[in-house]
Specification:
The protein is an alpha/beta fold. The protein contains 4 helices and 7 strands. The chain has helices spanning 12-29, 46-57, 92-97, 100-105, and strands at residues 5-9, 34-39, 71-75, 80-85, 109-113, 127-133, 140-145. The protein is globular and about 40 Å long. The structure holds adenosine-5'-diphosphate and magnesium ion (MG). Adenosine-5'-diphosphate binds at residues 9-12, 14-15, 40, 42-48, 65, 113, 138, 140.
Length: 151
């Protein structure tokens, strides 16, 4: 995969497929887990992208938005997909109380929406997924950047 990788999608389904493709790549290149930070406006498709990744990382689960819970955990035992939405986070204590740092250490696949609210909590190595509207109806541009040469 060359980076940054830019994909244009025209439906939620296509954005889900992009998430699934990244997840397959991660399984191959990051067997010990990875952190993916998703950014972009409300309603742009971050959860859709994570849902697609979930079809690969935790195939029995149906990924929903963790907006009201901060975190949802899918899959396991063994590999788990941990999906955070930090939109409503007040401070770093909220992260402690949902066990953010424990998940970080366990070699899981973390997908984090709104990490820009608490950027200091991201580890040194993480993947970035930035989504923006193209201006066309349902059009989205997804830019994926890996941590150095790993991608
Ligand atoms: N190309 C696209 N990619 C993703 N979502 C899209 C696209 N076009 C339209 N949508 C719609 O945009 C919304 C995205 O919602 P969601 O994934 O929850 O956004 P976010 O998590 O960024 O707030 C959904 O209603 C989805 O159907
Ligand atoms: Mg969301």
């Amino acid at each position: 995969m060359r980076q940054p990788l830019v994909i244009e999608t025209h439906s939620a389904r296509e954005t889900e497929a992009a998430g699934a493709a990244l997840a397959r790549d991660l399984l191959e290149k990051e067997p010990d887990g990875a952190v993916v930070a998703l950014s972009g406006d409300l309603g742009v498709g971050k959860t859709a992208f994570a849902r697609g990744a979930g079809t690969v990382l935790a195939p029995d689960a149906c990924v929903q938005s963790p907006t009201y819970t901060l975190v949802r955990v899918y899959g396991g035992p063994g590999r788990q997909m941990i999906h955070f939405d930090l939109y409503r986070i007040q401070d770093e204590d909220d992260l402690l109380s949902v066990g953010f740092y424990d998940y970080l250490e366990e070699g899981n696949f973390l997908f984090i929406e709104w990490s820009e609210r608490v950027p200091q909590v991201l580890p040194e190595r993480f993947y970035r997924v930035e989504i923006e509207r193209t201006g066309e109806p349902d059009g989205r541009r997804i830019r994926i950047t890996g941590p150095g040469e790993a991608l």
